[in-house]
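Full entry
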Amino acid sequence: MRKVMGAAVAVGVVLLVAGCGSDGGADKGGSASVGSSSAGSSSTGGSGGSGGKRLDGAAVTEELSGAATGAGFTQDASGEQVPATLKDCMVSWTADAEKAADPAKSYDATVATLTKGGWSEERSSGQGGSVIKSLKKSSWQLQASNHSAGPLKLVMFVAVDSGPECAAAIAEENAKAKKS
């Protein structure tokens, strides 16, 4: 169980660090995409100050679950579990890709629904039948991974809040995991 929690924390740290350096890299559309992503995140993130509801772990879970199940996925209960102390900072949702009629199509539909819901696609990469997309909404960074082309059939969505409170909580949880 500790190894699973440590893996979830490690994924969160990687996402947190990767999300901080999003100025360069292979984002879609070059520099114009960077500018439009920033503007889109501010206007659609729902956390822009007065009147906006802060995006938290429960809201991200609800959006992600709705998009994934609406696209034909069911959640794999044996997927990565997020430590209780990080429930407001990290969300992990693993699809049971074996049960999906067409995992690649369901993955694309999940990502499309999320982007229609205000998530902006920052980057996309693919190699050897695997696709990884990085999406952003407010202070949240979402890594959508589709490795269903091979025998493994793994589709996973991991979101991390890159705000300062969550960065501190993730670092603390990671330090605890290293000690054990």
